[in-house]
TrEMBL record:
Name assigned to this protein: O-fucosyltransferase family protein
Biased composition, class Low complexity, residue ranges: 15-25
GO cellular component term of the entry, any: membrane
InterPro entries: FucosylTrfase_pln, GDP-Fuc_O-FucTrfase, GT106_glycosyltransferase
Organism, as annotated: Trapa natans
Length: 563
């Protein structure tokens, strides 16, 4: 049936006339006008009802509200007391609702920008700014500021040196970033125990054979001075303790029963008595031996103070990093932004992951032999590894291959002209494995390509200082991209958040990306949409520090304040 305007109007008129004829209220039958049908009244002055209607119209809304609030002024005196209270209650409720709405709007306008986690999904407030490849929205970065710096003009609560409970000594094990975390934890434990901290020793790395000392990489004077109102720190073991070799070699001088992520109370109950008795004790092992949710917030804030303010690299390391960052920004002859990519695809990382990667049959056989030799208990007979590899990839626990990284970055919108600084060890598979990434992003450089051999020779004596250069150049980049977990990426992302959330730090969703890569029917357009939508909130935006989540990657809750 086709639509006809004339037919519709006719039906409307027909229905209106039927409605008029069917209105037969008692008032109509008594000769009075129906309230639904307007009748002609030429002389309102002779009609009392007409005069009342005019008065109501002249008084307007405020007059009507006054009538509702004060019914005894109404022309109709037959209103009951109960019905007279109802309008007052309704108006009060209306006013209350308006006030609540205004308060809610003002609260939302003044609320800080903060992303909320719902399960595994992160929901962030909307912003009016258009997305940028090189920085987070300005409106998302003005709500928070660092507040873990030392208290200027504050009164130190440290006891006199003679009143300290004793001395603690640790070996900071692992690579540079694991050592950094251990140093921060050592200062925090010294504070908990009201003990004096002996300057930590950087334990020799068995892989790199590196013998870097604390003073070879960090500014010791600044470290001790900046924390002088928090913890007493001395450069060496006290002279009165003559048998220095006894530390770490004698069980009487070593606390070895500290569990991972121990609470502050554990240290007070189990470690403090031994320190008071022996006066000097070594804590071993000390990797991840202090928790996060089970210590006072002030202790977590102290860890941030150590990490972001007290631990400074030596001036010559800082200067070389500034030079490398400047060269990255001027590679095109004009000022350009640059991306730093932490590519974790070394042979050791690939082997330890027990994930399956694209490669020749010969490569897979060699990797199986390598895993069997290095991790025999996990390898067993190798029959269960294929299923394990599939499961880990689905869960996003496998390192991204260089080719996968290239496809994700291109889907995000980065062009082949993008300047990329790569922080990485020896990539497993060499040039062949790196070829897809280099083909899509030819402006790819490492510190070895960016600096002269003579410039880097000054740092080769201490391998840790080369790692420090990578750390600082990544920290100063416009965009930082991680490809797998680890302390390096964790500390970089946390520091960039602490600096104000403006700098983008991209953390790929490896689980979701593995599904997209494994879908043979997915075209480029839906893949691009998946990548962009998935990573809108994975750029280092402000979010709460989640329970049971360490503060190194997200220091907001204990270490940042409302701006």
């Amino acid at each position: 049936m086709t639509f006809s305007p004339k037919r519709a109007l006719a039906e409307l008129r027909h229905s209106s006339s039927l409605g008029s004829r069917s209105s037969s209220s008692p008032m109509k039958r008594d000769g009075e006008s129906s309230p639904l049908v307007a009748e002609s009244r030429p002389d309102y002055d002779d009609d009392d009802g007409g005069r009342h209607s005019l008065r109501d119209r002249d008084r307007g809304l405020w007059g009507y509200l006054n009538t509702l609030c004060h019914p005894h002024f109404s022309d109709d005196h037959r209103v009951s007391p109960l019905s007279s209270r109802i309008p007052v209650i309704l108006i009060a409720a209306l006013v209350l609702a308006v006030l609540i709405s205004i308060f809610s709007i003002v609260s939302r306008l003044n609320a800080p920008y903060l992303c909320k986690k719902d399960g595994i999904v992160l929901h962030c407030p909307r912003v009016k700014e258009s997305p940028s490849l090189w920085e987070n929205p300005y409106s998302a970065t003005t709500s928070w500021k660092p507040c873990a710096e030392r208290r200027h003009g504050g009164i130190s609560d440290l006891p006199h040196e003679n009143e300290t409970n004793g001395y603690i000594f640790i070996h900071a094990e692992g690579g540079l970033n694991q050592q950094r975390i251990a140093i921060c934890n050592a200062v925090a434990v010294a504070k908990i125990l009201n003990a004096t901290l002996i300057l930590p020793v950087l334990k020799q790395d068995q892989i790199w054979k590196d013998q870097t000392k604390f003073e070879d990489i960090f500014d010791v004077d600044h470290f001790i001075d900046y924390l002088k109102d928090d913890v007493q720190i001395v450069r060496d073991i006290p002279e009165w303790f003559t048998d220095k070799s006894e530390l770490f070699s004698s069980i009487r001088r070593t606390v070895k029963n500290i569990p991972k992520y121990a609470s502050a109370q554990f240290y007070i109950d189990n470690v403090l008595p031994r320190i008071k008795e022996k006066k000097i004790m070594a804590l071993k092992p000390f990797v991840d031996r202090l928790g996060y949710d089970n210590v006072p917030q002030e202790i977590n804030r102290l860890r941030c103070r150590v990490n972001y303010h007290a631990l400074k690299f030596l001036p010559h390391i800082e200067q070389m990093a500034d030079l490398l960052a400047s060269r990255m920004r001027n590679r095109t002859g004009i000022q350009n932004p640059y991306m730093a990519l932490h590519l974790r695809f070394e042979k050791g990382m690939v082997g330890l992951s027990f994930c399956d990667f694209v490669g020749t049959r010969e490569e897979k056989v060699k990797m199986a032999e390598y895993r069997k030799k290095e991790w025999p208990r996990r390898y067993k007979n190798g029959s269960h590894l294929w299923q394990l590899a599939l499961q880990k990839r689905k869960e996003g626990r496998c390192p991204l291959e260089p080719g996968e990284v290239a496809v994700i970055l291109r889907a995000m919108g980065y062009s082949k002209e993008t300047q990329i600084y790569v922080a990485s060890g020896q990539v497993y598979g060499g040039l062949n494995r790196m070829a897809p990434l280099r083909n899509m992003f030819p402006n790819l450089v490492t510190k070895e390509e960016l600096a002269t051999q003579a410039e880097l020779d000054k740092f080769r004596k201490h391998v840790t200082s080369l790692a420090a250069l990578d750390f600082l150049v990544c920290l100063k980049s416009d965009v930082f991209v991680m490809t797998h977990g680890g302390n390096f990426a964790k500390l970089i992302i946390g520091a960039r958040r602490y600096m104000g959330h403006r700098l983008k730090s991209i953390k790929p969703d490896k689980g979701l990306m593995s599904k997209s890569f494994g879908d043979p029917f997915m075209g480029w357009a839906p893949f691009v949409e998946d990548v962009i939508v998935t990573h809108q909130t994975r750029t280092g935006l402000p979010e709460e520090t989640f329970p049971n989540y360490d503060i190194w990657e997200n220091p907001l809750t204990p270490c940042m304040c409302r701006a």
